[in-house]
Specification:
Blueprint lengths: L5 E5 L11 E3 L16 E4 L8 E5 L7 E5 L11 E3 L3
Antiparallel strand pairs: 1-4, 2-5, 3-4, 5-6
């Protein structure tokens, strides 16, 4: 990710139904969830429904590294790291 940019993650695919994802400042381990990062993050709709998405605005205060996790499915997304560059 690049600071100052806005990113949208389309969640409208039917296979996403019931499975959302969150950004975290900590890596989720096993059955635990990371600490949710909410600054600049917004959602629209429900996963699996037309027009739904997750949006993140990467600002100056966004941590250099974020992780993704799925609150509905323990362990899903644990290995995804997002790096922020200036």
């Amino acid at each position: 990710f690049k600071r100052g940019n806005t990113y949208y993650f389309d969640q409208s695919l039917k296979n996403n139904s019931g499975l959302s994802f969150r950004f975290s400042t900590d890596k989720a381990e096993g059955d635990t969830e990371g600490k949710e990062y909410k600054n600049g993050v917004s959602t629209k709709g429900r996963p699996g429904k037309r027009g739904s998405y997750i949006r993140i605005i990467v600002g100056n205060n966004t941590p250099e590294k974020l992780y993704i996790y799925c609150p509905e499915e323990a362990g899903m997304g644990n290995d995804i790291e997002l790096f922020i560059k200036d």
